[in-house]
Amino acid sequence: MIKLLIVEDELITRRGLMRHIPWKKIGVDMVETAESADEAFGICARWQPDIVLSDIKMRGMDGIEMCRQLRSLLPDCQIIFVSSYSYKEYLKAAIELGAIQYVEKPVVPEELIGAVEKGIERIEQIRAQKDLQESYTESLDFLKKEVLFSLLSTPGDVDKLECQLRKSGLWTGTDTRMRIGIVKLAGTVSEGREFLNTYREALHELMEPAHFYCSADFHDKRTLILLITEARERLERDSGLIRSLCALAEESKGEFRHFLALGRMVGEPQQLYASYESACQSASSLSYKGFSSCAFSEEVAQDRHFELDREREEAFVNALSRRDKEEAGRILKDIYDDLTDQKAALNSSVKNMYFLLYNHVLRLEKELLSTGKEQKENNRFWDNAQTLQELHTFLAARAMEAIEEREKEGSGGNAVIFQVIEVMKQKYPDKNLCIKDLADAVYLTPSYLSGLFKRRTGTTINQYLTNLRIEQAKLLLRDNSLKLYHVADRVGYEDAAYFARIFKNQTGMTPSEYRENKSR
């Protein structure tokens, strides 16, 4: 599609150009007009025309200056000047701006049509060049991806790997050295694609595109695999490039916090898999080093069995029961420091240690009857945690919250629950009875009362009120003189049909069936 913008301050000229030039016939699909440079800037920002046909002498900013500014906004836009003046300085400015043609007024349609056709031809050439460049870039990207695929899937096929390295331009021969890097993202999987694009942009600032390739891991979208091919001095551990890559990781923050593990430098395609293996080994050190850090091939986590010291476990449980936040925090910090000092890998034994401590916190909270959604969220955390720091932070926060909640509740918690239950027993026939009314009765917020009630009783306020109403309904149903809607009304339900559904959900039978069953 070709879009053309006419910038002309004279209404008669604008209308004449629109009416007498067969735009569709010569290949222009859409035409818009502007009567000033200011209006033209707005249209260009919104519409992005391919060709601008502009007068030179206009009120306000002239056409020369307007097109000079448009060049930065639309570098590929083709310019045609139309003017009654043929001053030398105008012609010189038009040439400097790369204008297609300078058409003098009064406009000869054939001359203008020829200029527009020339502009269309240039646009098509530019588009063809861009398409060719994109195809070339995509082909190179595909070849580079094939290198990683071959490296991970068929590491023994050295000839194939060398051929792909040469075709992709990543390896040119004996002077080239290579390193594999593994990048671990702290964020979620949904952020993986955005992080990959951002990380590639950062790499472009440090290296030429021909010297690296970065792709998401085939199995874990939070992991990137980086292949760098450079001269030896550029890939040495203390080189500027390697220091810059490490700085990217160490200075990373927020949702794009990441960890970089670098494999050893190699010089031959057959050694590349060894670089990948050493990068995988150094990636294990993420467990104790944490995100916003980097590691080299000699830094490896200790993947062995770890057990929780029985005395520490008992001390932690005692601190929880005494509501001693300082002591509980100190014990957790000691456990974390010991595991970090031992460079512990985040294996099942370490996760089991923290999960055992977490269960003690759950017992304090009396939340082992937590909802399925809460349980699923907790399971996702344990599955997705990658560092000791994450486990420590999560557990310490939950422990402090549990102790603080117990401090708030104190010994009066049970008395509050008893009082709320008594209010429900008195007011259950009230159809408008809600949690806010109950919370107001005991001078608590609805959210706090809901959590307290659930922890102390194992059920929600709404479920307890429903159970209470159904039990009262069972008693009333024994009186055959009461219609069903009378029973519903007396236990707090305005809609008898809704009451019947709730009753069946609770008892497995309709109110009528229950009445008949009790009458036998």
Automatic annotation (TrEMBL):
<dbReference type="Pfam" id="PF00072">
    <property type="entry name" value="Response_reg"/>
</dbReference>
<dbReference type="GO" id="GO:0043565">
    <property type="term" value="F:sequence-specific DNA binding"/>
</dbReference>
<dbReference type="InterPro" id="IPR011006">
    <property type="entry name" value="CheY-like_superfamily"/>
</dbReference>
<feature type="modified residue" description="4-aspartylphosphate">
    <location>
        <position position="55"/>
    </location>
</feature>
<feature type="domain" description="HTH araC/xylS-type">
    <location>
        <begin position="418"/>
        <end position="517"/>
    </location>
</feature>
<dbReference type="Pfam" id="PF12833">
    <property type="entry name" value="HTH_18"/>
</dbReference>
<dbReference type="InterPro" id="IPR020449">
    <property type="entry name" value="Tscrpt_reg_AraC-type_HTH"/>
</dbReference>
<keyword id="KW-0805">Transcription regulation</keyword>
<dbReference type="GO" id="GO:0003700">
    <property type="term" value="F:DNA-binding transcription factor activity"/>
</dbReference>
<keyword id="KW-0597">Phosphoprotein</keyword>
<keyword id="KW-0804">Transcription</keyword>
<dbReference type="InterPro" id="IPR001789">
    <property type="entry name" value="Sig_transdc_resp-reg_receiver"/>
</dbReference>
<protein>
    <recommendedName>
        <fullName>Stage 0 sporulation protein A homolog</fullName>
    </recommendedName>
</protein>
<keyword id="KW-0238">DNA-binding</keyword>
<dbReference type="InterPro" id="IPR018060">
    <property type="entry name" value="HTH_AraC"/>
</dbReference>
<dbReference type="InterPro" id="IPR009057">
    <property type="entry name" value="Homeodomain-like_sf"/>
</dbReference>
<comment type="function">
    <text>May play the central regulatory role in sporulation. It may be an element of the effector pathway responsible for the activation of sporulation genes in response to nutritional stress. Spo0A may act in concert with spo0H (a sigma factor) to control the expression of some genes that are critical to the sporulation process.</text>
</comment>
<feature type="domain" description="Response regulatory">
    <location>
        <begin position="3"/>
        <end position="120"/>
    </location>
</feature>
<dbReference type="GO" id="GO:0000160">
    <property type="term" value="P:phosphorelay signal transduction system"/>
</dbReference>
